[in-house]
């Protein structure tokens, strides 16, 4: 496994939100972690304009490289396009588009967060692929680039050599996903723990929750969800949960989807995987026993769902948590 170089595109002018989305990959890839992997990533700040930029809040950022260097990177990440691209239908800067195409042709992995997807789209790198962006901008992305299969609900999409994510903290989920791909689950889990964030949020998890149905009111779903969490080792069905909530299965399905952004069966699976993760982190129980306690059934079923949702086998995941922590 190898980390390689990550070229982070730094815009010529940016605001506070851009600093946040630049800071995430800088924290993940730009801070050496020699006890986890040595060598760590080599991060380049590749500027789109002058080498020094002053932000509105008074910060100054120095980029060490230019867009010409992007072609030589192993991974290129862009989380920005000029505001007028979104607001006024202005073109994506051609020099950025050209740099992304050259880097991709040279074998680089191209990654976007938030509106950076517009730059990848303009370069033609998303044609015929699934992709996402911040949900506020996905409708426009789909309208302008009809060849893209835009998914406005997920946190991130991994298409192998091209990856896209929603905005803000979803970019962190994608960065940790890249670390998991490059350096393994153990390293990704340990890094996430140091950053005090969840070790893994699956890319297909919803970007947002429709809050039109409050969870905390007297008819909220939290009591029945807590009831289900206490019985994950039992063979629960949608009918069981709907009956407990005093609703028809159809009404319960609609309410849960509006509240959590997922279906009842997927919610149960997510909770069972979370229970399995907690048991793997805190106990030395066998995978077979954990499969039973989490309601997934057999060890083979747990391995299948765990690998699909977490991106690592239960055994590999457990290795990220030393015995003294269990």
Automatic annotation (TrEMBL):
**Keyword Transcription: yes or no?**
yes
The record places domain HTH araC/xylS-type at 222-320
> SUPFAM superfamilies under this entry?
Class I glutamine amidotransferase-like, Homeodomain-like
A Pfam family name for this chain? HTH_18
Signal peptide (from-to): none
Which InterPro entries would you find in this protein's record?
Class_I_gatase-like, DJ-1/PfpI, Homeodomain-like_sf, HTH_AraC, INH-QAR
Keywords from the named record: Transcription, Transcription regulation
CDD domains linked? GATase1_AraC_1
**What name has this protein been given in UniProt?**
Helix-turn-helix domain-containing protein
What is the scientific name of the source organism? Answer: Lentzea miocenica
* Native organism taxonomy: Bacteria, Bacillati, Actinomycetota, Actinomycetes, Pseudonocardiales
